[in-house]
Design brief:
Number of domains: 3
Family: Belongs to the GcvP family.
Strand content: 5-15%
Number of strands: 30
Radius of gyration: 29 Å
GO biological process, one term: glycine decarboxylation via glycine cleavage system
Strand order of the largest sheet: 2-1-20-26-25-24-23-21-22
GO cellular component, one term: mitochondrion
Catalytic activity: N(6)-[(R)-lipoyl]-L-lysyl-[glycine-cleavage complex H protein] + glycine + H(+) = N(6)-[(R)-S(8)-aminomethyldihydrolipoyl]-L-lysyl-[glycine-cleavage complex H protein] + CO2
Distance between the termini: 61 Å
Shape: globular
CATH architecture of the largest domain: 3-Layer(aba) Sandwich
CATH topology of the largest domain: Aspartate Aminotransferase, domain 2
Subunit structure: The glycine cleavage system is composed of four proteins: P, T, L and H.
Number of helices: 34
CATH class of the largest domain: Alpha Beta
CATH superfamily of the largest domain: Type I PLP-dependent aspartate aminotransferase-like (Major domain)
Length: 1041
């Protein structure tokens, strides 16, 4: 079943043929087939960075003149010419010829240039309005983990729409990230408190993936290899079950979904269903899918007796009123925090939460914020227990979690801070009160409510009122509302904080019309509320009935009680923001992270309710405008990658890796190649690669990296031949993580294909491919893209992200599905993420970015990014060793600086990183892909002046290091070892350091005009891990940091 590389190339050739015809007939993930026609609101001329400030000859006077390219690219044309001249080139064409290997580049054609026409920012805004008009924003009462919410305007404006928050990176450098670290610690504390468990992480991707992580945690927690069964209650959300099943396959876990209630008591199933000694974990929903509250305590006790963990998928708002999982014996609680101020967004992004008992803390997936201290002894926040994470454990990891949902977690944390425990309780009580009124009137109409106990969801048995469920659904749609279709005799209704009395009345009258009962009025609702003793003044004391009422306090920390006026809240968020370095302040030159401009024009659609307010399981015809956008994005990504099929479902790059490998796994299985399980991965690969391979059920075999930074073809050949009967795939990044293109990459792919394997190209560095080459050109079968890198979705301080995959034609039938909304291929794998199109609302950002640049603008952006990296390499190479360069001495879009030569001076990578903070920069990627490396990436968006400022800083730090070599500073106390220097340190009364305050604070003159100050001194990581504190406790103890 060996697949020649030409198979992938042929699929690409078909795609190019479609381009020449002017219509792309693409295999889209969201439908069996779809035809996407190109559109252009203006006939845009070819965009070129050197001419971006010059009107195009022959263009119409009616054509938009203010192109987005000139706003997106930082250096001006004359500066680009200067850079080219410095590097010895007369044109971009000459530069690209010696930077991107001929073996990798594809031929530029008119068809490609016209494949994605460019829109101006104004044209894009008008296009957005057109699409928004094609979206029917019905009131959705579907539930299933997605709820309407009211986003406080102060949070919307000062956090979600604030580049000071959304352009920052994951807080690996805590001295310049104390603000968002504090907010994420608030999130952890909020989750810990509401669930009554011991520890919570700083968010996961969504509820489905969180449940999958919990299952693997339970597997890793048992030492009994016979325990390979994971029980799931029959009333767990179907999208969650699908994600869990997909995760289980790679680990050899059997998922059994069955009823875990017998005779109205929660219990393990009978031995005829499963041997309890084989069970390692149990998943329940609380409240369950139908809205019922179940006392799971007996089940938790029984599961514990059999050595199994109990996992509760729960609801944070409900937990303000119902007994928390930690109090009835759950080991893990997880769920979706979206109803704390984050709209459903047609599936996301929203922050998932994950809390565990103390015994499980070192197995918990995801980021964990802890409290340590800096060199002055002051408390400081940091990422704790990082040795658990995939970038360290690699193939030994059981989770590939990298990106989380930090921005959305911060929104939910601020929602809790703003409302406080009393405010949250009132919101919950209002929702529950309205549900009580709804239940009362529905029973009055003759309907039967299936669940006796509930918080906000009722399952209504329509047959009891001699009404078909389909009739209720039809009348509801006519009234512009969506209910949940349960079966032919039942519908579900879930209420939320957005429901007004008019909304409630409309819901009630839908059921009244269906049952041919008199329609009700607002006064009727008030009478029912009065009858049940429901008064606004008593919301604080309203209790859930049936023995489920919460009695314990929650959110007792001062931060949840102090910032309830808008002024106080605004200043609190602003104070945190001011502690964090983001793209608002300076370049963030993180290698393999692509911290480019997140333009205002591309961000604006996200705030529109038409795009962020849709329920992911609303009828597809209501989302026509967003579906059009999704198909256009799939098409454009197909153009850029060369692949005929794309899935947007994976909601992070690591999820994209897992999805791509799972698709390969399914293809091999379908072709009788189940025995193929070996995945060849270079030693220089991203840490997520081996972790993802293990998750997909593959065995990782490492491949050597040569001294020149490329993959060792001889070692690849030897290992492919050795494992030819078991070879499933290879995972290779292009350009490599060492910062250079691999000219022989097609030969590497030919080797893998020759021995029956599939080729997975890691798209983390697709930034250096766009418009110049693509995976199909090189012979890949599948790739993932990071829309939060290459395509301008902001990093958000650690998420959200999107990791779509493109696949060759033979893999298209296996693209991921969704159990609720039809999507994926004909032989689709299980869901990768909970929603059919993943984090759909932020797809608007990548879509807008591509549309405004067009194909030629995207290509020009790539060329400028390559140029900027090579300029920095050229300017600093006389004082630093640039570890790897290509055939002509050039790097790709990033350069790897090796500081090993400074080790005899007592200096480490981290010393250089912390000193760069004193110059007002975020450090590059540290100690990766080599332990002594600084991986520097300069995006196309950075102004020439900022690039020069980084060069000046790097050269100045090299001079400071030279002073140690010359004996002018000691190895123990010097400008680098003592960095970063806070304003408090500089202002201290006693100064006993062998350098001046001025040199510490203002090492170059430009910093006197504008300087970002770290808020804490260097943090003691080891102390933080030895003394683990991962909740805010009394947050105000740390408020002065």
């Amino acid at each position: 079943m060996m697949l020649a590389r030409s198979q992938a190339l042929r699929s690409g050739a078909r795609f190019q043929t479609a381009l020449r015809a002017g219509t792309g007939s693409l295999r889209l993930a969201g439908a069996p087939t779809a035809t996407v026609r190109y559109y252009a609101l203006a006939q845009s001329a070819r965009q070129d960075a050197l001419q971006m400030d010059t009107p195009q000859a022959g263009s119409s006077v009616f054509q938009a003149q203010d192109t987005f390219l000139r706003r997106h690219v930082g250096p001006r044309p004359e500066q680009l010419e200067k850079i080219l001249k410095t590097l010895g080139y007369s044109s971009f064409e000459a530069f690209v010829r010696e930077t991107v290997p001929e073996e990798v580049r594809y031929q530029q054609t008119e068809e490609l240039a016209n494949s994605i026409p460019a829109l101006s920012e104004d044209e894009l805004a008008r296009r957005v309005e057109q699409l928004a008009k094609d979206i029917q924003l019905y009131r959705s009462y579907i539930g299933m983990g997605y709820h309407g919410t009211i986003v406080p305007a102060v949070i919307m404006r000062n956090l979600l729409e604030n580049p000071g928050w959304y352009t920052s990176y994951t807080p690996y450098q805590p001295e310049i990230a104390q603000g968002r670290l504090e907010s994420l610690l608030n999130f952890q504390t909020m989750v810990k408190s509401l669930t009554s468990l011991d520890l919570a992480n700083a968010s996961l991707l969504d509820e489905g993936t969180a449940a999958g992580e919990a299952m693997i945690l339970a597997l890793g927690n048992t030492k009994d290899k016979k325990k390979r069964v994971f029980l799931v209650d029959e009333h767990v959300a179907p999208q969650t079950v699908s994600v869990v099943r997909g995760r289980a396959k790679g680990f050899g876990v059997e998922v059994i979904q069955t009823s875990l209630v017998k005779d109205q008591k929660a219990c393990m199933p009978s031995a005829s269903v499963v041997d309890p000694s084989r069970v390692m974990g149990v998943l329940v929903q609380y409240p369950n899918l139908d809205g019922a509250l179940v006392d799971w305590a007996p089940l938790a006790k029984e599961a514990k007796a059999h050595g199994a963990l109990t996992i509760a998928a729960t609801d944070l708002l409900a937990l303000t009123m119902i007994k928390p999982p930690g109090e009835w014996g759950a080991d893990i609680a997880l769920g979706n925090a979206g109803r704390f101020g984050v709209p459903p967004g047609y599936g996301g992004p929203q922050a998932a939460f994950f809390a565990v008992t103390d015994a499980l803390k070192r197995r918990m997936p995801g980021r964990l914020i802890g409290v340590s201290k800096d060199t002055t002894g002051r408390p400081a926040y940091r990422l704790a227990l990082q040795t658990r994470e995939q970038h360290i454990r690699r193939e030994k990891a059981t989770s590939n979690i990298c990106t989380a949902q930090a921005l959305l977690a911060n929104m939910s944390a601020m929602y809790a801070v703003y409302h406080g425990p009393k405010g949250l309780r009132r919101i919950a009580a209002k929702v529950h009160s309205e549900t009580l009124v709804l239940k009362s009137l529905l029973e009055q109409f003759g309907y039967k409510i299936q669940n006796d106990s509930f918080f906000d969801t009722l399952t209504v048995q329509t047959a009891a009122a001699q009404v078909k469920a389909s009739e209720v659904m039809k009348i509801a749609l006519d009234a512009k509302m969506n209910l949940r279709s349960v079966d032919k005799d039942s519908v579900g209704v879930t209420l939320d904080e957005t429901v007004t009395q008019e909304d409630l009345l409309a819901i009630i009258n839908v059921f009244a019309r269906a049952a041919k009962q008199p329609e009700q009025s607002i006064e009727d609702l008030k009478k029912v509320a009065e009858k049940h003793g429901l008064h606004a003044g008593e919301l604080d004391t309203l209790k859930i009935q049936g023995g489920f009422a919460r009695e314990s306090d929650y959110l007792t920390q001062p931060v949840f009680h102090k910032h309830h006026s808008e002024t106080a809240m605004m200043r609190y968020m602003s104070g945190l923001q001011n502690k964090d370095l983001s793209l608002v302040h300076a370049m963030i030159p993180l290698g393999s992270c692509t911290m480019k401009l997140n333009s205002a024009s591309s961000m604006m659609p996200l705030s529109k309710p038409e795009f962020n307010g849709l329920h992911p399981f609303a009828p597809v015809e209501q989302a026509k405008g967003l579906q059009t956008l999704i198909k256009e994005l799939e098409h454009d990504l197909g153009v850029l990658t060369g692949f005929p099929a794309v899935s947007l479902q994976p909601n992070s790059g690591a999820q994209g890796e897992f999805a791509g490998l799972s698709v390969i796994r399914a293809y091999l299985d379908a072709n009788g190649q189940q025995h193929r399980k070996v995945c060849l991965i270079p030693t220089s690969a991203h840490g997520t690669n081996p972790a993802s391979a293990v998750m997909a059920g593959m065995t990782v075999v490492p491949v050597k990296t040569l001294n020149d930074g490329t993959v060792d073809l001889e070692d690849l050949q030897a290992k492919a031949e050795k494992h030819q009967n078991e070879l499933a795939a290879t995972m290779i990044t292009e350009p490599g993580t060492t910062g250079i293109y691999f000219a022989n990459i097609s030969k590497a792919f030919d080797i893998v294909h020759k021995y029956g394997g599939q080729v997975y190209m890691d798209g983390a560095n697709f930034q250096a491919q766009v418009g110049l080459t693509n995976p199909v050109q090189m012979g890949a079968d599948v790739t993932h893209l990071n829309l939060h890198k290459t395509f301008s979705i902001p990093h958000g301080g650690g998420g959200p992200g999107v990791g779509p995959i493109g696949v060759a034609a033979h893999l298209a039938p296996f693209l991921p599905s969704n159990p609720v909304v039809s999507s994926g291929g004909a032989q689709a794998i299980e869901a990768i993420s909970a929603a059919p199109w993943g984090s759909a609302s932020i797809l608007t950002i990548a879509w807008a970015y591509i549309k405004m640049l067009g194909f030629t603008g995207l290509r020009s952006s790539t060329e400028v990014a390559l140029l900027n990296a090579n300029y920095v390499a050229e300017k600093i190479k006389h004082k630093y060793k640039v570890k790897y360069v290509g055939k002509y001495g050039n790097v790709a879009h990033e350069l790897l600086v090796d500081v090993a030569e400074f080790q005899p001076l007592g200096l480490t990578v981290m010393d250089f990183a912390k000193r760069l903070m004193d110059y007002g920069f975020h450090p590059p990627t540290c100690s990766w892909p080599i332990s002594t490396g600084l991986l520097i990436e300069i995006t196309e968006s950075e102004p020439f002046e900022e690039i020069e400022r980084l060069i000046e800083a790097m050269l100045s730090i090299a001079d400071e290091a030279q002073e140690i070599r010359d004996g002018k500073q000691s190895k123990e106390v010097n400008l680098l070892k003592m960095a970063p220097h806070t304003i408090e340190t500089i202002a201290q009364e006693n100064w006993d350091r062998p350098y001046s305050r001025e040199r510490a604070a203002y090492p170059v003159a430009g910093l006197r005009r504008n300087k970002f100050w770290p808020s804490v001194s260097r943090i003691d990581d080891a102390f933080g891990d030895r003394n683990l504190v991962c909740e805010c406790g009394d947050v105000e103890e740390y408020a002065g940091l």
